[in-house]
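Hi Prof. W.,

I finally got the Enoyl-CoA hydratase prediction working! I wasn't sure whether to trim anything, so I left the full sequence exactly as given:
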Amino acid sequence: MHILYEVKDRIATITLNRPEVANAQNMDLLDELDAAWTRAAEDEEVKVIVLRAEGKHFSAGHDLKDRWPAPKEITLEWIYRAENRRYLEYTLRWRNVPKPSVAAVQGRCIAGGLMLCWPCDLIVAAEDALFSDPVVTMGIGGVEYHGHTWELGPRKAKEILFTGRPLTAEEAEKVGMVNRVVPRAELDDAARELAEQIAAMPAFGLRQAKRAVNQTQDVQGFYAAIQSVFDIHQTGHGNALSVSGYPVLAKLDEMKEKLR
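And this is what came out:
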């Protein structure tokens, strides 16, 4: 099992459980994660969801060595269909689960890792957390769930994408992407404490407050932008496919191996 699930005191805790590969996301992990979100959403006893991760790092992003069963010849059409389901439909569904959610992030949160914490309503980060999206090195303009502009603001988003450098937890808090920064040893307790505070509130009021904020973003163009930028992302795959074998994948794999 790549995902652990527990409910206690009206709080569902979902845990990424591939610490041996820095919680890199293969397709089984994403499918299990979506099932866990659905389970928590449908459980009337659950008022708040906490997403956390085992090990040193929250997530090294997509597992480039074990992404999905691929056909002999990979085409842009095939990539589009596969990513639309797991990288777009899943993340939007998690964002819109009608219950508050809290992500607890430690260590590296790289590219696809952002797709796991950004759909959560609140983020508590350990002091050692580093957030990055280096996929410009692949000729792609950002990870599939393009929350960058909304989470960071346009200029900070461009800086992080253009340079590939990680954003520290302190920087992330300053721009409003992270709610709280705590010592690593206190991360789980801090996320749990926040979830308990939220769980003490009326469920319907929480649902309506979340809906109000999400719909305000959607009226401003969030939902349409996420979907349209996903199409821009796919042109990056087309560019990479034009260079036989995605040669930069070896470089990214090498970077991720250092985290394990």
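Residues 3-257 form a domain with the 2-enoyl-CoA Hydratase; Chain A, domain 1 fold (CATH 3.90.226.10). Does that look reasonable to you?

Thanks,
D.
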